[in-house]
Write a structure and sequence with these properties.
TIM Barrel, 19 strands, binds beta-L-fucopyranose, 12 helices, alpha/beta, globular, 2 domains, Jelly Rolls
Length: 500
C-alpha cells in the first residue's frame, strides 16, 4: 500500500491491478459455461420437475357421503371404511402406471382429518368403526412410498368448512399452520404439498354457518407457511398457496403446446396457466391436475376409468409439453383402488413403456453444425444429447441461437416420437424449432406440421404424425431425422434428444 502511494511505484501497482482483474475475469468460468437466462428454477423445483408424472388420491369423508365438496357438518361416524384402507396398493398401482410418485388428500374442504391430529376432534380417531379409527394416511402413505421408491406428498385444504375459527387469524395460527407442521413431520423427504385455491365461502363452521370471506393473497400467512414447511422438508414444493408451481388452469389434462415455465405473480390461471409467460419474472412451472376416471375427484358409484389410450394422450399433452401430470385415481369405500382402475392404469403404464421406452437415438450418429468452445473440464458436443446423463448438454457459442441437430442411422428405423429436453437449470430458452425426416439422408420432409413446435423446456415430446389422440400409427421408416432449432432466447442448451 505504501509503495502504491509513491510516484515510482505507481505504474507497477497499476499493472498489477490490471492483470489481477484479468485473472479474476477468467477464473470463475474455466469451463466456458453459458450464462444463465433468468429466471432459473430453485434446485427443489428442478427435483420436483423430474417427478414428471404422479398420482393424486382423493379419499376421505366424501368417499362415504357421495359428495365432492362436503359441507363440514358430516357426522364423524360416517367415515367407516368397509376394510382397512391400503395406501400401499394405491402407490403400487401408480408405479405400474409408470408414475414416479403420488399425493394423498389428508384433509379436504370438509375439514375431516385423515390422521390423529391435535388441532381438531374432527378426525379419524372419532370415526365410525375400527378400520376408520386405525387410519393414518400420512404415516402409511409415506411408509409405502419409501418402500416402493416413490416420491410422495400431501394435499391439505386451506379452506376448512368445519372449523368455527375459519376466517379469523386464529384459524391460520392454531389450526392450518399447525396441521401443515404436523404433516411435514410425517416425512422430511416430501416433494410437494398441495394447497387448493378453493374458498367457496359458505359452510357449517362449527355450527355457526354462514359465509366467511378471506383475502387469499394474505390470509394464509404464506411467507411463514413456506419457511415453516421448508425448514422441515427442504425439497417440498408448495403448490397453489405458497406458489412454487402453478395450476395449469384447466382440469382436463392438457398444457399449451407453447408452455413457458416462467410467469408473473399477477397471472390469471384460467387465462394463461396453460402457456406461461415468455418474459415472466418467476420460475413457476405448470402442473396439470386431471381425473383418470369419468366422474369425481372422489369415488362415486359408477366411477370408471378412461381408456389407456386417452390417458396416454393426457401424458403426451402434459409431460410432453413441459408440464407435470398429477392424475387422480379415487380409492373406493374399502379404501382401495377398484380392479377396473388398476387395470386401466397398468395398461397405460405398458403403453408408455412400449411407445416411449426404447430410445433409438444412441444408435444414431448425431451431429450439429455448431458446438460451443469446450472449457477445461466440460465440453458441449452433440453426443452429450444422447449420453443419458442429465448433467451434460450440447450448446452453441454465445449469440448463436439457431442450429440443426441431425441423427443418422446405419439402417433405417421406424420412428414415431421425438423427445427433447433443455438444460433448464440455466433457464428456459428455445422459442421455435421443427422436425424433419429423410429416407435417404438427402431429401427432407417436415413432420408434425400441425403441431406448434415452439417451446421445449424441461421436456417436449412431439408425435411425428401430429396426433396426440392416435399418436402411435404406422410410424415413418427413415434413415435420418433432424431437429432444426430456429430461435432461442440465448444459445440453446439441449441435454437430451430421444427418438422412439
Ligand atoms: C379443486 C377442489 O375444489 C376439488 O375438490 C379437488 O380437490 C381438485 C383437485 O381441486 O379445486
Amino acid at each position: 500500500m505504501g509503495l502504491c502511494m509513491s510516484l515510482t511505484a505507481l505504474p507497477v501497482c497499476f499493472y498489477a491491478q490490471t492483470s489481477l482483474s484479468l485473472v479474476e475475469q477468467q477464473l470463475p468460468n474455466p469451463d466456458n459455461e453459458p450464462l444463465p437466462v433468468h429466471p432459473v428454477p430453485h434446485p427443489r423445483q428442478l427435483k420436483w420437475q423430474e417427478t414428471e408424472y404422479y398420482a393424486f388420491f382423493h379419499y376421505g369423508m366424501n368417499t362415504y357421503t357421495g359428495l365432492e365438496w362436503g359441507n363440514g357438518d358430516e357426522d364423524r361416524k360416517t367415515f367407516a371404511p368397509t376394510a382397512a384402507p391400503n395406501p400401499r396398493q394405491w402407490l403400487e398401482t401408480a408405479k405400474a402406471a409408470g408414475m414416479r410418485g403420488g399425493i394423498a388428500v389428508v384433509k379436504h374442504h370438509d375439514g375431516f382429518c385423515l390422521w390423529p391430529t391435535e388441532t381438531t376432534d374432527h378426525n379419524v380417531t372419532n370415526s365410525g368403526n375400527e378400520y376408520g379409527r386405525a387410519v393414518n394416511i400420512p404415516r402409511d402413505f409415506a411408509e409405502a412410498a419409501r418402500d416402493l421408491d416413490m416420491k410422495y406428498g400431501f394435499y391439505i385444504s386451506p379452506w376448512d368448512r368445519n372449523s368455527a375459527l375459519y376466517g379469523t387469524d386464529r384459524y391460520v395460527k392454531e389450526v392450518f399452520l399447525r396441521q401443515c407442521a404436523e404433516i411435514a413431520e410425517y416425512g422430511t423427504d416430501q416433494f410437494e404439498m398441495w394447497f387448493d385455491g378453493a374458498n367457496g365461502g359458505s359452510g357449517y363452521y362449527g355450527g355457526e354457518g354462514g359465509t366467511r370471506s378471506i383475502d387469499r393473497a394474505t390470509y394464509y400467512d404464506v411467507p411463514n407457511l413456506r419457511d415453516t414447511v421448508h425448514k422441515v422438508c427442504p425439497d417440498c414444493v408448495l403448490w397453489g398457496v405458497g406458489g412454487e408451481a402453478r395450476w395449469i388452469g384447466n382440469e382436463a389434462g392438457w398444457a399449451g403446446q407453447t408452455n413457458w415455465s416462467t410467469e408473473n405473480r399477477d397471472y390469471s390461471p384460467e387465462g394463461n396457466g396453460m402457456y406461461g409467460t415468455e418474459d415472466g419474472w418467476f420460475w413457476l412451472p405448470g402442473e396439470s391436475d386431471a381425473k383418470a376416471t369419468n366422474r369425481g375427484w372422489f369415488y362415486h358409484d359408477g366411477e370408471s376409468p378412461h381408456t389407456p389410450e386417452r390417458l396416454f394422450q393426457m401424458y403426451l399433452e402434459t409431460v410432453g409439453r413441459n408440464a407435470t401430470l398429477i392424475l387422480n385415481i379415487p380409492p373406493n369405500k374399502a379404501g382401495v383402488l377398484p380392479p377396473a382402475s388398476v387395470t386401466a392404469l397398468t395398461e397405460t403404464g405398458k403403453l408408455i413403456s412400449q411407445r416411449l421406452g426404447t430410445d433409438l437415438a444412441p444408435q444414431a450418429t448425431i451431429s450439429t453444425n455448431k458446438v460451443r468452445t469446450a472449457g477445461a473440464k466440460r465440453d458441449y458436443k452433440a453426443d452429450n444429447m444422447t449420453d443419458n446423463d442429465k448433467e451434460t448438454y450440447w450448446a452453441t457459442n454465445d449469440g448463436e441461437v439457431s442450429d440443426t441437430i441431425t441423427l443418422t442411422w446405419d439402417k433405417k428405423q421406424t420412428v414415431r416420437y421425438v423427445e427433447l429436453m433443455e438444460y433448464i437449470a440455466k433457464g428456459q430458452r428455445v422459442r421455435k424449432f421443427h422436425i424433419e425426416t429423410s429416407t435417404d439422408g438427402t431429401a427432407w420432409t417436415r413432420r408434425a406440421t400441425n403441431v406448434e413446435t415452439t417451446t421445449v423446456g424441461y421436456k417436449r415430446i412431439v408425435p411425428l404424425n401430429g396426433s396426440t389422440s392416435s399418436s402411435y400409427g404406422e410410424g415413418y421408416n427413415v434413415k435420418a431425422l433432424r431437429i432444426v432449432i430456429e430461435d432461442s432466447k440465448a444459445c440453446p442448451l439441449i441435454s437430451r434428444v430421444a427418438v422412439y
